[in-house]
Amino acid sequence: MGFWITAAVLLVLAILPLGVRIRYNAAGFVLKVIAGPVKITVFPRKKKPKQQKPKGKKQKKEQIKASAPSEEKPSQSVEGNQEQKETGGSLTRFLPLVKLGLKFLGDFRRKLRLDNLYLRLILACDDPCDLAVNYGRTWAAVGNLMPQLERLFVIKKRDIQVECDFTAAETRVIAHMDITITLGRLLVLAVYYGIRVLIEFLSMKRKGGGEQ
């Protein structure tokens, strides 16, 4: 019984989505961190009300601070002279780590998922001819953008529209997107590339490239 409970918990954790939720509209940007069903707002942060301190205590602190002797800061030039000049390492030993890092970024990118892409472009123009031209150009730009996004993410759901508004003073945008990766995929990538990096470091140490 305990084995099946543990297996069920691990399965739930493996498919737990982690990521960010981005929203933009007339109110501005909203950024939230996603951890399964929990969404934590990162931006904008709620401002805490400032607590007013008694004036008497503030004046006393200022008087004590003014009467305290000033401490001389150590000269930065002395510290600079004591620093040893840094020497470069071998480029041939560094390149394998660069290639490994690029491969990790490529695999990580392909594991990311765009769960919900909602985009509304509301074009503003009082001239119907100019608006028709801008409408065609906007759809062409969207058509060029989508292949780029599909190379970066697996797009699960999309809703993209271009609208026209003759009464609007300026072109407006409404954008919603959820970018996630499951905890299981993230751990697999971390373990796999962590072992690869460890192997590279051990190889460098055997060849005399590691720091003593």
Structural class: alpha/beta
Q: What does the overall shape look like?
A: extended
Q: Which residue ranges are poorly predicted, with pLDDT under 50 across at least 5 consecutive positions?
A: none
Major β-sheet annotation: 7 strands, mixed
Portion in helices: 40-55%
- Mean pLDDT comes to 77
The radius of gyration over CA amounts to 28 Å
Note the total helix count. Answer: 6
Q: What is the distance, rounded to the nearest whole angstrom, between the alpha carbons of the first and last residues?
A: 50 Å
The overall strand count is 7
Give the percentage of residues in beta strands.
Answer: 25-35%
Order of helices and strands: HEEEHHHEHEEEH
What does this structure look like?
The protein has helices at residues 2-14, 55-67, 76-82, 91-111, 128-152, 183-206, and strands spanning 17-25, 28-35, 38-43, 113-124, 154-155, 158-165, 172-182. Strands 1, 2, 3, 4, 5, 6 and 7 form a 7-stranded mixed beta sheet that branches. Helix 4 runs antiparallel to helix 6. It is built from 6 helices and 7 strands, in the order αβββαααβαβββα. With 212 residues, the protein is of the alpha/beta class. The longest helix is centred in the middle third of the chain and has 25 residues, at 128-152.
